[in-house]
Specification:
heterodimer, A: about 110 residues, mainly beta, seven-stranded mixed sheet, 11 strands, B: mainly beta, about 0% helix, about 45% strand
Amino acid sequence: EAQVTQNPRYLITVTGKKLTVTCSQNMNHEYMSWYRQDPGLGLRQIYYSMNVEVTDKGDVPEGYKVSRKEKRNFPLILESPSPNQTSLYFCASSRTGGDSYEQYFGPGTRLTVT
Amino acid sequence: AQRVTQPEKLLSVFKGAPVELKCNYSYSGSPELFWYVQYSRQRLQLLLRHISRESIKGFTADLNKGETSFHLKKPFAQEEDSAMYYCALNTGGFKTIFGAGTRLFVKA
């Protein structure tokens, strides 16, 4: 089944403890992206990647890191999480080129930082 | 500045009534616009995109460049249309800006 998976789905952690949220897609998509969803703000793009080893900042990159060493994986790293990073995080992927930029979303990861 | 505005946080209509979810955008280039929907306990998924000019589940959306709008419309709302709807702007193919979303509630 074509899909985007994220792990973990739920995470409660403490301020300053490094964490990684994994994202994987099995559709051979070039493009992958991370969003955070907050009430009243919708989805805001954190980072995106056009292909392996090519990443760029979205609108809210502060406090986050990403890497794209393999086409299928795009982990989100919080080196020193803070309470303002408590949010619902979504990973997405899509093909590039042609006329389609439809994004396929993962199920979400709910992160709480205390 | 690039921006997507969905002025209504919540829209409540009766079953069978017409529904219009508003979306306005700010972008100096050639926009590519989408509507995504998130049903309860499901993933965010594409509903429709302006370049395909199609009707999905009875919904349509027309890009109005003069008014910089991409409103989503359906002539007769159904209870199963109750969901969160997001308008999204794709800029240059890789950066995507989402609106804050509109929760549609269709009452029986």
